[in-house]
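About this split. The held-out portion is used to measure sequence recovery: a designer receives only the structure tokens and must propose an amino acid at every position. Recovery is the fraction of positions where the proposal matches the reference. Here is one held-out target exactly as it appears in the evaluation file.
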């Protein structure tokens, strides 16, 4: 039986949790602790050094360090689906700064362009770090409550000051234009840090509409050929210890002890959608591979 070789690009701005997602996914399929739609296949000649490096930190409930996320890493996993078909799925791990450069500098390097132009997209958004728009009426209201003091120079606007949803929509629009355009695509929007934002009582779909309305309207308008699903994701299950590499003041967190003491580490992972909540990160991955 021929091997299926889909490509899925994991896209996100800095701090969106792309590397943590990959570490959690590698633990999930490699450990076999719980049933998943896609399973670890077999040994191969792939270089798993990078995945093994980041999964060690994930199992220790320690945040990924900057040295782990510097530069684009080409990653492939050999998996098996429910029908026994062998799958080699590849997804480059790209620093968020590269995606930010597409917004700020209108620049994409050749290797990244080649990857983005071939597969479907998983878009990670840190739900706890969304930069909301600054409304003029709110600023005027606040200004009216502050006593007049010495006049200050207005801060110079920089592209990185733009709201999160503006940067994300621009990024998705780039993916639908040359040289990255490849026609209609599937898109999984993953609202990360779900354990930090679920207290608002919104479903992932409602959270997207309320907190990222510009992105939500862009996707629903059908202006570009996206077929999308929205998930809530907690790839850590709580707060990890800060990475102490080159950081003598790294914080140790109580929650990390709880996560390390779980009998089944895969249960840290939470995937929330319209259906039952699960721990299976391969569910959106399987969907993204559906048309390849």
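Reference sequence for scoring:
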């Amino acid at each position: 039986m021929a091997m299926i070789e889909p490509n899925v690009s994991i896209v996100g701005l800095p701090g969106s949790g792309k590397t943590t997602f990959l570490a959690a996914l590698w633990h999930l399929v490699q450990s076999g602790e719980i049933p998943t739609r896609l399973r670890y296949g077999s040994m191969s000649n792939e270089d798993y050094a990078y995945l093994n490096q980041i999964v060690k930190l994930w199992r220790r409930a320690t945040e990924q360090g900057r040295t782990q996320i510097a530069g684009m890493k080409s990653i492939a996993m050999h998996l098996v689906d429910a029908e026994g078909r062998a799958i080699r799925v590849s997804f480059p791990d790209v620093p968020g700064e590269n995606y930010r450069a597409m917004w700020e500098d209108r620049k994409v390097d050749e290797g990244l362009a080649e990857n983005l132009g071939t597969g479907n997209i998983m878009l990670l958004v840190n739900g706890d770090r969304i930069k909301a728009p600054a409304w003029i009426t709110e600023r005027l209201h606040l200004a009216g409550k502050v006593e007049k003091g010495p006049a200050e120079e207005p801060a110079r606007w920089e592209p990185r000051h733009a709201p999160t949803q503006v940067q994300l929509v621009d990024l998705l629009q780039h993916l639908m234009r040359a040289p990255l355009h490849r026609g209609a695509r599937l898109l999984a929007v993953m609202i990360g840090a779900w354990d930090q934002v679920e207290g608002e009582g919104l479903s992932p779909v409602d959270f997207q509409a309320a907190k990222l309305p510009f992105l939500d309207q862009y996707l629903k308008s059908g202006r570009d050929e996206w077929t999308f699903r929205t998930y809530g994701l907690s790839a850590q299950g709580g707060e990890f210890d800060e990475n102490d590499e080159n950081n003598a003041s790294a914080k140790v967190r109580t929650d990390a002890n709880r996560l390390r003491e779980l009998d089944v580490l895969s249960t840290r992972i939470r995937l929330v959608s319209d259906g039952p909540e699960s721990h299976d990160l391969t569910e959106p991955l399987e969907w993204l591979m559906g048309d390849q």
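Annotator remark: DSSP finds eleven helices and eight strands in the chain.
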